[in-house]
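Researcher: Let's do a round of design. I'm pasting the structure tokens now; please hold your answer until I've finished.
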């Protein structure tokens, strides 16, 4: 047995490292290695030859050589099969290494004094939105992703703010509360993953689009590599939240759609792609009408499900104009089938109105379309279209009847079917009835057709009035979100959005009776999620309120990740001058966790260089970016393991609520 085979067989004994087909999951092995997982280390130590290969003995202690192990299992011929070789050719790479093999974490801090447009791509909005980004190598991460202490718990109801005393749970101890978490979304997701792992039916996110001029445009080489790392970190943890029959939808534009599809293929599996929906987001008006070349009016929803065979989306219909192809009429529909007589729809309508066919449109004028559609609705089982059936897609019994109909062109054939509409045939053609095209939408009987992957009816026409908040361009309309939720969930299912912005998605989820989890890092002032949800509870009538018969009510809980170094990030970003930043530095030197290589006392010549940096173009931004790098990112928030440390002054009330929230994992 070769060394490769021995190592592969050993790793396969751990169920965490194999898929449903028993194949080795290299990414799972690599992730465990980076984390120095006790189970993996113990497994590798169990075999003498493997132990000698990946461990070094120092004074009777065996030290795990992580880099040697990861390099070995990452080499392209480790799993020398066609499946692996193919993957090695189609994966995304950064610096010659496949993205799925890299262990970096990208974290971000948007400016707190600007309104960040997650997904905003409108050219007329020229403001640049800066996000400080930092990519941490795996060996720099030790406590970054550990659960954090939660604080500032508040329950919002129709009676106003209420103290949080406990958390409602179902019979399986899953929290049954609408919850909003404030803090870095990556760290918040890792904080709450044990409470909601495998419980979420639908995830929707509208992340920064990486247009090259938006929030990701500041950093060198950020347009692909860091953005992909940034998304990879968040999508990997998001996957842990999904139920086996759940799905995730990501809003994206043309800049990164190809890259994110490959990334999501890696994370969710190509076999679990559930489609790309094209969404019309504008019209040819203003400067767009005179642009050269092809004018872009669309963006996309890329979706994946957890396990394709278990994913069961609903069959939805959308309103359309009257279908003029239904232009025939059965004059004696209630009579025997063999006696049916046919005429044109206009002849039947003319007779009904007692107006000659030539004079119909002239006499009825602008009311013609309304009047004929009222006639169609009243006689929908008699208004028909003749159409040739798709011979290859019907059953053999129906194929036989089609042939009989073609041989007897004057006879009407009737095929009865269970759980499907009956089939009527004349001269080999099927009779399609308008009654099968009528549906009730928003309380009105309309012509409708099955939902397709082109959504051109969810334009943000009245967006600025939705939610009782002042929304900027680029935000998603409630109708778009409600369709995604309706397509994938039922009342009571859990919905997750970790790029909340102004809270459109959770506002819609609240109105539609879904339990929701939201994460947001920014404060939006009067456009904040909390403000919007309070308006929803009060019964605001904008957006989809009418279509879902929303009258108000419900409640939600808001809490925050307890800040430590993150508080200094806030001060850095809010500073207006270099002098203010130097004052922030004094506070950091006295009361923060700095990176190990940082001298708390800045030498005088360093201060001069720092001030000179501020005189350069975008100097204040550069100063803030450099100063943010000095903070230890493992100490951004207070870890749950340090809740009893007097240094962090966690209140008795917060300790009680953290214990109630985390449950059995509180002391883990």
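Researcher: That's everything. Go ahead.
Model: Designed sequence:
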């Amino acid at each position: 047995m070769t060394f490769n085979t021995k190592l592969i067989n050993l790793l396969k004994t751990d169920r965490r490292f194999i898929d449903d087909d028993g194949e080795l999951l290299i990414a799972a092995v690599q992730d465990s290695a980076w984390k120095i997982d006790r189970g993996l280390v113990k497994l590798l130590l169990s075999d003498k030859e493997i132990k000698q290969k990946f461990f070094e003995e120092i004074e009777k202690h065996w030290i795990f050589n992580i880099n040697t192990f990861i390099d070995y299992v990452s080499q392209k011929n480790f799993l020398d099969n066609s499946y692996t070789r193919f993957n090695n050719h189609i994966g995304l790479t950064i610096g010659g290494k496949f993205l799925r093999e890299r262990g970096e974490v990208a974290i971000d801090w948007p400016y707190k004094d600007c309104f960040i447009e997650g997904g905003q791509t409108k050219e007329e909005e020229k403001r640049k939105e800066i996000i400080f980004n930092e990519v941490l190598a795996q060996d720099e991460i030790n406590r970054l992703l550990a659960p954090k202490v939660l604080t500032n718990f508040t329950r919002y109801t129709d009676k106003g703010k209420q103290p949080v005393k406990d958390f409602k749970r179902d019979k399986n101890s899953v929290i049954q509360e609408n919850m909003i978490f404030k803090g870095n979304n990556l760290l918040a997701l890792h904080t709450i993953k044990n409470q909601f792992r495998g419980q979420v039916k639908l995830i929707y996110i509208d992340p920064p689009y990486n247009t090259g001029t938006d929030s990701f445009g500041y950093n060198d080489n950020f347009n692909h590599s860091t953005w992909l790392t940034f998304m990879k970190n968040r999508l990997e943890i998001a996957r842990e939240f999904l139920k086996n029959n759940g799905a995730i939808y990501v809003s994206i534009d043309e800049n990164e759609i190809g890259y994110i599809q490959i990334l999501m293929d890696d994370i969710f599996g190509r076999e679990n792609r559930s489609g790309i929906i094209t969404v019309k987001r504008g019209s040819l008006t203003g400067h767009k009408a005179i642009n050269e070349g092809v004018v872009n009016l669309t963006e996309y929803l890329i979706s994946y499900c957890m396990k394709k065979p278990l994913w069961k989306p609903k069959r939805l219909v959308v309103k359309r104009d009257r279908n003029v192809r239904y232009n025939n009429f059965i004059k004696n529909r209630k009579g025997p089938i063999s006696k049916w007589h046919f005429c044109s729809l206009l002849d039947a309508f003319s007779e009904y109105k007692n107006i000659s066919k030539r004079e119909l449109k002239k006499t009825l004028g602008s009311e013609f379309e309304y009047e004929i559609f009222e006639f169609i609705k009243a006689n929908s089982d008699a208004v028909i279209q003749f159409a040739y059936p798709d011979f290859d897609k019907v059953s053999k019994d129906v194929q036989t009847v089609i042939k009989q109909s073609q041989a007897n062109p004057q006879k009407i054939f009737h095929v009865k079917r269970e759980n499907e509409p009956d089939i009527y045939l004349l001269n080999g053609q099927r009779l399609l009835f308008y009654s099968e095209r009528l549906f009730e939408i928003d309380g009105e009987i309309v012509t409708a057709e099955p939902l397709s992957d082109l959504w051109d009816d969810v334009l943000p026409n009245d967006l600025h009035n939705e939610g009782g908040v002042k929304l900027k361009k680029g935000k998603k309309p409630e109708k778009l979100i409600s369709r995604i939720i309706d397509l994938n969930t039922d009342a009571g299912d859990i919905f997750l959005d970790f790029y909340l912005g102004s809270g459109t998605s959770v506002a819609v989820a609240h109105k539609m009776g879904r339990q929701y989890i939201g994460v947001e890092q920014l404060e939006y002032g009067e456009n904040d999620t909390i403000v919007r949800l309070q308006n929803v509870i009060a019964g605001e009538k904008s957006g989809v309120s009418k279509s879902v018969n929303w009258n108000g009510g419900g409640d939600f809980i808001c809490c925050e990740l307890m800040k430590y170094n993150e508080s200094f990030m806030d001060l850095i970003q809010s500073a207006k001058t270099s002098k203010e930043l130097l004052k922030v530095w004094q506070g950091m030197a006295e009361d923060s966790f700095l990176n190990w290589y940082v001298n708390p006392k800045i030498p005088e010549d360093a201060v001069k260089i720092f001030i000179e940096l501020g005189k350069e173009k975008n100097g204040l931004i550069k100063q803030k970016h450099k100063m943010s790098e000095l903070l230890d990112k493992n100490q951004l928030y207070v870890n749950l393991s340090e809740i009893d440390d007097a240094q962090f002054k966690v209140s008795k009330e917060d300790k009680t609520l953290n214990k109630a929230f985390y449950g059995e994992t509180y002391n883990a």
